[in-house]
Design goal:
single chain, alpha+beta, 5-stranded antiparallel β-sheet, 7 helices
């Protein structure tokens, strides 16, 4: 059984601001929502901002308990329910070949190269010296896509392998931006890992219309996420029926 949660965050509270600004803190708080020493897999999540308000969407294999977040970063009793938890099964039951949905996903577009530039070249040289046995070909270095064009192409190139196809522009339904899909937001997140290292994450959010091309692969993409950066709010694909 999978569950989709919506947890409201108050950005005027200190803990709320921390969750909004630091994916490492958010990830740690989400993991605390499940009993220790249980097999919980990797919960997927995405932070949504609507003006001065914010909420977390979390997809998990176990039913979570969000009381620790709502107590320190919620809205008290002023806004009604602080967290909503629903079974994901009704959405799973809709997954079939050719079915069309509105989609939204925040991803971490990256690629591997054997000739990295700038700071990535220095990092690659250090890793190669430490980890590559003599005579063995060094592995590529993972670097981010930073431009709109590269991030968009990265997304388009991977949709099919995720079990979907982008809907044509002449679809009878309409996407939020009036196009088959659009890049609605981009961010560069910088924060500290618990071990002290600096993490920089380039993210891109896409929305639009999508169609199921391979139900089994699409379901795997929905439940396990896509791309890298899943611990930090990337890779969750959410679907809603088109209007």
């Amino acid at each position: 059984m999978s569950y989709l949660s919506k947890v409201f965050i108050n950005p005027r509270r200190k803990a709320g601001l921390r969750y909004i600004s630091n994916p490492q803190a958010t990830h740690a708080a989400i993991m605390q929502a499940f009993p220790p020493e249980t097999e919980i897999g990797r919960p997927l999540w995405r932070l949504e901002k609507e003006g001065t308000r914010a909420h977390l969407l979390v997809l998990s294999n176990l039913r979570p308990d969000w009381s620790h977040i709502t107590e320190e970063a919620g809205w008290g009793d002023a806004e009604g329910a602080q967290a909503k938890i629903a079974s994901y099964q009704p959405l799973i039951d809709l997954i079939s070949r050719g079915r069309e949905f509105h989609f939204k996903t925040t991803v971490n577009p990256v690629h591997s190269t054997t000739s990295p530039q700038g700071k990535y070249a220095k990092e690659a040289a250090t890793k190669t010296a430490l980890n590559t046995p003599e005579g063995k070909r060094p592995r590529g270095t993972v670097v981010p896509h930073k431009t709109v064009a590269h991030q968009t192409k990265w997304f388009q190139d991977r949709v099919e392998r995720w079990g979907f196809e982008l809907s044509p522009l002449n679809s009878n339904t309409s996407s939020p931006a009036g196009k088959a899909f659009t890049l609605t937001n981009r961010n560069v997140l910088k924060f500290k890992h618990t071990k002290g290292s600096q993490i920089t994450l380039n993210t891109a959010t896409f929305e639009g219309l999508i169609r199921i091309s391979d139900p089994e692969v699409a379901l795997n993409s929905l439940l396990n996420g896509v791309g890298q950066g899943k611990a930090y709010g990337c890779g969750l694909i959410t679907l809603t029926e088109p209007q």
